[in-house]
Write a structure and sequence with these properties.
By secondary structure, the chain is of the alpha+beta class. Helix content is about 50%, strand content about 10%. It has helices spanning about 5-20, 30-35, 45-65, 80-95, 140-150, 155-165, 170-175, and strands spanning about 35-40, 70-75, 105-110, 135-140.
């Protein structure tokens, strides 16, 4: 198995076992079942290359309506969470600069994800702690359609935090780490 195949396999396992298994995103299972998710690996350590790859994913979504969402996985970049947050801010700026605001949205996942003001050992951080740093591109139109079918979508983050805390830090760590 190539390194790329392994990283994609681990990412898919994280999505299936953690994101879908814990129902952190009630819309993810449909896209996985319909095979409308694209996975792209960018091996560069340089933020500039990662942002270029991010823009290329926007263009991929432009050109391929059958792809609902794309995960840009960055196994060698931004190991520090603060640097990752800078990359996310730059990616959001690119969306605005290139006219993608309101078309695409970026969701952020990182192995050291930490919510603002949350302690590092808060199990709730595992709702966004992935196996690799990644930028997840979503179509805003699809998000809006999905949210209309979901009662009380504003309660999803609170429900996820409550679930992770009830399961506890050891469980959430084990669940994510089992994907590697």
């Amino acid at each position: 198995m190539s390194n790329t195949e392994l990283i994609i396999q681990q990412t898919k396992k994280w999505i299936t076992d953690v994101v879908i298994g814990c129902n952190f995103c009630p819309f993810a299972a449909k896209e996985i079942k319909q095979n409308t998710v694209h996975y792209e690996i960018e091996y560069s350590e340089r933020s500039e290359n990662c942002l270029q790859a991010f823009l290329m994913e926007c263009l991929r979504l432009d050109d391929h309506a059958a792809i609902e969402t794309s995960f840009l996985v960055l196994p060698n970049a931004v190991p520090q969470f603060d640097n990752y947050l800078d990359l996310v801010a730059d990616a959001e700026r690119i969306l605005k600069q290139k006219g993608y605001e309101g078309i695409y949205q970026v969701a952020s996942f990182h192995p050291l994800y930490r919510f603002a003001d949350a302690p590092g050992n808060d199990a709730a951080n595992y709702t966004n702690r992935s196996v690799y740093p990644m930028l997840h591109l979503l179509r805003e139109e699809s998000i809006e359609r999905a949210l209309k079918k979901y009662t009380e979508p504003g309660q999803i983050p609170e429900r996820n935090i409550r679930f992770a805390r009830e399961k506890g830090l050891a469980y959430m760590q084990m669940l994510r780490d089992a994907c590697l």
